[in-house]
């Protein structure tokens, strides 16, 4: 690529999440597969966007953030698309990031949970189990961190509320 504004695409962009609020210097990277640079064209609904690849081809891509994002997804904004691993998907790309004010902004709403899970394993080494979207009674927790019991037991039928079941 000729023009990349200092962002190398020889390796996939690495997006850093700073967990400094919790532990000074802690954080983690979220890595993506095959990433291409494009120009944002339009967002007909909250799930898809149209973008122009550097080759000039217009593609429809999945937006991994259903928020409005009007201040980020402006016409001609530089966006980054990750090629989907499944060749049979309706959209061949996911819109994962956008440039704004010289910064790369992650648009992947699932990335913070992946970053937190990695951080949690580092922050609490005793947490051998880190389960996202954990159901506890009638509630859903974003994460459940638990140490493996010294003597694992089989949960009762229909029991919930233990991270290790």
Describe the structure.
- The protein is mostly beta strands and 165 residues long.
- The protein has one helix at residues 111-123; strands at residues 14-18, 27-31, 35-42, 48-53, 58-63, 78-83, 93-100, 103-106, 129-136, 139-146.
- The strands form three sheets. It has a five-stranded mixed β-barrel with strand order 3-4-5-7-6.
- Strand 7 (93-100) and strand 8 form a beta hairpin.
- The longest helix has 13 residues, at 111-123.
- The protein is elongated.
- Residues 1-12 and 16-26 have low confidence and may be disordered.
Describe the protein's topology.
Elements: E1 14-18, E2 27-31, E3 35-42, E4 48-53, E5 58-63, E6 78-83, E7 93-100, E8 103-106, H1 111-123, E9 129-136, E10 139-146
Parallel strand pairs: 5-7
Antiparallel strand pairs: 1-2, 3-4, 3-6, 4-5, 6-7, 7-8, 9-10
